[in-house]
User: What shape does this take?
Amino acid sequence: MLERTYLELTVSASPETEEAIGDFLFGAGALGLVTADLPDGRPGALIRASLPGAIAPDLIVASLRRYLADLDALGFPIREGPIEVRELPLEDWGRSWKEHFKPLLVGKRLIIAPPWEDGPFPPDRQLLRIDPAMAFGTGHHATTRMCLEALEAFMEQRPSAPPPIVLDLGTGTGILAIAAAVLGAGTVLALDTDPEACDAARKNLAGHPIASRIQIIQGGVERLGHSPHFDLITANLDTKTLRPIFSALRARLSPEGRIITTGITVEDEPAIAAALSAAGLTPIARQAQEGWLCFVLTNKA
Assistant: This one.
C-alpha cells in the first residue's frame, strides 16, 4: 500500500554541523533537504528534511538526538532548539519543494530545473527537467552531483560511435538515466525497487525528447535477465546494498566498460575497498564531497 503522508523534520544546525546533520538525515532515509537562515539571526541553518511516512517519528528524533550528543562530545558546537516533526499529506511534498528547488548547474554541460521553471536557460547547457516527487535524485545532493559529473566525463572521453549502452541501478527520479541519454547514450535501462521511484522516473522521462531511448523497470539486478553487457553502469545506492552486488555488476560490464558508484560515506571506504577487490573491480577515479565518495571502476587489474 502506498504511503499517503510524509514526515517533515526540522532541526537547527551550526555552520560546523550543517553538513554532518544533513548527511545523517539522508542516511536515515531523507528524500530531500531544504535549508533556511535561523530565525534568530545566528550563524547556521534551519534544516527541513522530508522523510517517508513509514518512519516512526519518535525513533528518528531519538536517533538524531543521540547523533547530536555525539557531535557535542567531539567538540562541535550544537545549536540549541527543538527537533520538530510534522506529518503532512503526500500532496504537499511537491508544493514544499517548489518554494526551494531552483535551477542548478552541474558539470560543464548540464542544468537541472523543475518543470515549473520557465528559464531562460544557458544555451550551452543540456536541460534536465526533474520534478522531485517522492524519489531521490535532484542534483542537489553530493552523491547525485558527483555521479552526473563522472557521467559527463565518461561521455566526453568515449568515442561518439557506437553510442554506449547504459544501466542505471537505483534510478530514483531518473536523473542519471535521463542525463546519460541527453549526453549521447544509445539505450538506457533504469531499475529501481521502489514503485514510487519508478513512477516518478516515468513522469520525468515523459518531458524529454530522448524518452524512447530509456526503459524503466521496477526491480534490482535480478531483473537484468538476458540483457546485453553495458558500457556504463551507474549505481547511486548505499554501502549495504552495493557490497553484495559488485560481482553481478562486473559480470554485466563490457570489456572496456566503467561503473560509476556512490552513496558511500568516507567511513565506509575500507569496507567498499575490500568488496571491490573481492569482485575484481579496480577504482580508476575517486571523488569526495561533503563526506560522500564516488568511484569510477573498471574490471581490469
Q: What stands out?
A: Residues 69 and 75 are 10 Å apart (CA to CA).
